[in-house]
Structure formats: C-alpha cells, structure tokens
Specification:
The structure holds 2 protein chains of 2 kinds. By secondary structure, chain A is of the alpha/beta class. Chain A has 9 helices and 17 strands. Chain A is about 30% helix and about 25% strand. Chain B is built from 6 helices and 15 strands. In chain B, helix 3 crosses helix 4. Chain B is globular, with a radius of gyration of 21 Å. At the A-B interface, helix 3, helix 4, strand 7, strand 8 and strand 9 of A face helix 1, helix 3, helix 4, strand 9 and strand 10 of B. Bound molecules: flavin-adenine dinucleotide and adenosine monophosphate.
Chain lengths: ~325, ~250
Amino acid sequence: MVLIFADQTDGQIKKQAFEAISYGAKVAAQLGTSAEVLVLGTVDADQLSALGKYGAQKVHHADNAAFNAFDAQVYAAAIADAATAAGAQVIVFSHTTSGKAIAPRLSARLKAGLVAGAIALPDTSNGFVVKKSVFSGKAFAHVSVNSAVKIISLNPNAFGVQITDNVAEVVASAITPVAGKIKVTATNKITGTVPLSEAELVVSGGRGLKGPENWFLVEDLAKEIGAATACSRAVADAHWRPHHEHVGQTGGAVAPNLYFAIGISGAIQHLAGVNRSKTIVVINKDPEAPFFKAADYGIVGDAFEVMPKIVDAVRKMKSAG
Amino acid sequence: MKILVCISKTPDTTAKIAFTDNNTKFADAGVQFIINPYDEWYALVKALELKEAGTASSITLVNVGGADNDPIIRKALAIGGDDAVRVNAENGDSFFIASQIAAIAKDGGYDLVLTGKETIDYNGSSIGGMVAELMDAAYISLGTKLNATGSNLTVSREIEGGEEDAELSLPAVISCQKGMAEQRIPNMKGIMSARTKPLAVKDPVAVDALTSIVSFELPPAKAGVKLVSADNPEELVRLLHEEAKVF
Ligand SMILES: Cc1cc2nc3c(=O)[nH]c(=O)nc-3n(C[C@H](O)[C@H](O)[C@H](O)COP(=O)(O)OP(=O)(O)OC[C@H]3O[C@@H](n4cnc5c(N)ncnc54)[C@H](O)[C@@H]3O)c2cc1C
Ligand SMILES: Nc1ncnc2c1ncn2[C@@H]1O[C@H](COP(=O)(O)O)[C@@H](O)[C@H]1O
C-alpha cells in the first residue's frame, strides 16, 4: 500500500497535496498496490471524497481537533501509526514547509529511508531508486532507498496534478494524537497576494529597476497575469521589497511554470533558487547579462520602455480572448 | 542551556558542479569549500546571540566528516563557539549523520540543537528533524526567529505564504534560515583563538544508512534563449501564450 499524507491548514487541504496524491497513485500502480490518503484534523467530508479524483482509492480521516495545530512530532507519530497499521510500503509527502518538518522525523522513527525533494517516479527496475534535486537545482542525484519502508517527499510542481475518474472511499481513522510539546500561538499569513511558494507564475525584479518607486513595472504585469511577485537578494537587502520575496540560494526556492525576471543580472546564487522554473523570461538591457544563458525567452532592452508595452500586449490578448 | 550547533561543509556557492568516476562522485578538484551558509550565518550566530544574552552557558560545534573538514570547523570556531567535536566518518546518508549528532547531543546533555535549514549540496532539509526524533525533542523547521528565557523558547517558522509563532520548552531542535540572525565576519582575535579551541575527534556509533546515492546527473543544457526585439514586445507575449502556454 502507498500512503499519501494530505496536509491541511484551517480545514483546507493544501494544493500541493493533490499533486502528491497523483504521484502516489502512480507509484501504487507501479507496485501493483493501492493508493490511500491520510488526513489529520478537521476537514469537511466533501473535500475528503474529492481526493478520489487525484487517484486515491481510500481516504483515512483522523477527525481530531488536536491535529489542527501543527507539531511535527505529533504528526509524525500519528502517520507512523497509520502507516504501520495499514502496512504501507511507501509513504509520500509534498516537500512543503510541513513535509520538511514531518518526513525526516518519520524516517528516523520508522527507520525508513527518505528521499527529500524527489522530482520523478521511482525506478523499480533494480531496487528502488528515486531522482532528486541536489546542488540547489544545479544537478540531480539518483538515490537508492534500501529500507523495507520508503519515504518520498515530492518537490512541489515537479510532477503535476493528474485528474482521474476514480472515486474514493472515506473511512474514519482511529488514530489518536500523542501529547505535543509545541504550542502554536499565532499564524500570520500575507493576505491578498499569491504565496510565492505556491505560485505558478512569478514576476521578479532586480536592482535594474533602480528603486522601490518603480515596482509598478513588476506589479502591473503580475496583476494582469495573476502572478506572485519576487525579487533578488540585492533588492531585499536594500529594503526595496520585503525579505520574504527574496529568492535564490539564501532566499526561497521557486519552481513555477513561468519566472519572469526584470533587471536581474542572474548571479549564480540567484539562479540556484529559480532554475527549476519551467519557462524563464529575462528582460535586461545588458546583452551579456548571465541570466540570458539560463533563459528560454528574452528581450535585450530597457525595462522602463519594454514592460509597459508587455502589459498592454497582455491586456489586448486577454480582451481578444 | 547547552547548545550544539551542526556545521557542514559545502562547495562554494559559485563552484562549478561536475561529476567524476562515472558520475558517482562530485568533482572536487580545485573547488573551494565553505561552511554551509545557513549553518554559518544563522545557526551559529543565533547560538552566539543566546550566549551573549546570558541564556546559553556553552556552545559546541559538531561536524560529521573526515579530517579534511577540520579547516572548515576551525573557520566556524573563528566566528564563535567554545569547542568542537568531529565524528570521524567519511560517508553516510542523512540518517547516519543524524544518528551521530543525536548520540553526541544525548551523551553531552545538550538541550538545544541548531542546524541550518538545508545543505546547499544535498538539499535534504532532513538532519534536524531526524535528530529531533532520535532525541525525542520538539522540532521547529525553517525557523526565522528564536528567543529564549530560561528553558522556554518562543519561535517563528516559515509556512506557505507566511509565518507561524509557537512556544516550546527544551530540549529542542531548530533548523535556521534567514531572519534568525545576521551574518558575522570573524575578526583577528577570533581567528587566533580558534586555533587553540578544543576540537575532539570521536568514532561514529554503528548505524546502517537507509539510502545511498547511485549516481549524479547534470540537467540537459538549455536549448538557448529565444530573443525577441525590444521594438516588438507583443511577440514575446504571443510566444508565452501560444508556444510556452504559460498564460
Ligand atoms: C553566498 C551568497 C549567497 C547569495 N544568495 C543570493 C540569493 O539567494 N538571491 C539573490 O538574488 N542573490 C544572492 N546573492 C547575491 C548575488 O550574487 C547578486 O549580487 C544579486 O543576485 C544581484 O542582484 P541583482 O541582479 O538584482 O542586481 P545586479 O547584479 O546589480 O543586476 C542588475 C541588472 O539589471 C540590469 N539593468 C540595469 N538597468 C536596467 C534597465 N533599465 N532595464 C533592464 N535591465 C537593467 C543590469 O544590466 C544588471 O544585469 C548571494 C551572494 C552570495 C555571495
Ligand atoms: N555532515 C554533517 N555534520 C554536521 N552537521 C550536518 C552535516 N550535514 C548536515 N548537517 C546539518 O544539517 C543541516 C541540514 O542538512 P541536510 O538535511 O543535508 O539539508 C545542515 O544545515 C547542517 O546544519
């Protein structure tokens, strides 16, 4: 059995969980076994049965409010119990902030090898080998998992969500939480914008934009296409933009379908955080800017002239349908 | 409070990534190695702040690796810390490394273990969580703030689209990233004193690795950038819509 952990916050199953279920269902098919999902905490029944369409055959729901506040220790203990009771061979997580906290604990608890940041289905032709991202996106490693139970933490946006016409059976899980040691006191979410880590489209600005007053060049396009905004470290360090927008080696790593970089030179440390993007567009007035080497599309030109025209063209395209 | 700071060695952020021995080994010839930035800038400096504030009584650095890691450990000691332990083991997966760190933490009675958020070469984000489980301690991953009064901690961690605050008490393991502290440059006094700080070498405890790396692979070269004229930005929008299909 392949057990997929579907993470929720505030009663909403996280988007990345759908992708993890799609992935887990494929792994289950590969191994000739069933794909089952575990949800911890308070979630509506219709959300649970809807998980079938990503390929889950069964959804185990531990409907206990004690799971609504996050404690990796409590979660890992519960998932370990569920996995052991159901005889899971493979346990799948999404490599999100909570996956990064729980999966290693579970690995140590079950003595089950973990591949953190997987980007492809396991190769089971000779053992159990999973490809993962290493060297901050600059290379891949093929990692063999040598334990009986295997844990895979899947990089968001590496596999994609796949819709099936499967229907899931929802069953109540009897798992009870152990006493936690962490008391969550507040969650502060930035509202009104797409969180960077979940964004499929990202528009990002660098020092080439000269100052925070020019950020409309980034924001106008972002608004038009529904993208999240990001920036280079130089920009965050200059306090032109908040630090949570900083991407790269020492900032956040993103893997959107589109990374649109304006006035960013493309230093190797910047690329480390964005090189898993599917399509990279670079607007830079310097034809020698290193970013062009990592880009799919580009314009050599002045962002102050080019960007308003691009926003206009997007508007026209949208109104043309 | 006794703090154990986990220090790892990684290739410099600008190092060329290539592999040898039939793609089974990182080509380290001519590569400069550094302290993993998250360990240096955030985990270590946070520990120093806690000691300066009088909350921490001692800071020990731990590294699992061969003797060629000693220069990196000394570099870290130049920034701060009272002493260091190196567990003498060349290879091993995340679980092996975490088991070594947990053994040191338990034997030495450390009640706060700080790690970086991830190594910039393996990108596991795994060691901290494993150590916490092996110590039966609370774990905060991707920590952005940490304050301590006695054995009570208040912390913040990154979550999707924001931050979460929490309270906990020792023992605890916290993985550190930006927000935690500000990078410090070692001064002459630090560099001099680092030479004489104790660096103990210990044998590893016997643990079987759970995973192993079979081979490495470089991403396929990009097809090359398709340049659009600055006079015709409309063409870029058309390509993104019709060819790349991103919107
Ligand atoms: C250990 C380490 C870690 C680091 N981590 C990160 C990280 O996580 N993220 C990160 O981003 N950086 C990181 N850096 C810094 C990185 O090396 C670069 O210094 C930084 O990314 C530069 O930011 P930038 O591209 O915005 O600025 P610049 O390098 O100054 O580039 C500005 C660009 O804008 C172009 N430009 C200027 N005017 C215009 C115009 N009118 N129209 C169009 N283009 C224009 C210029 O040609 C230039 O290419 C790190 C560095 C180190 C040493
Ligand atoms: N060999 C090692 N010795 C000591 N600490 C390590 C070692 N490898 C990793 N760490 C610590 O664990 C953190 C996370 O590493 P990783 O799980 O590999 O991403 C690093 O930032 C270090 O603080």
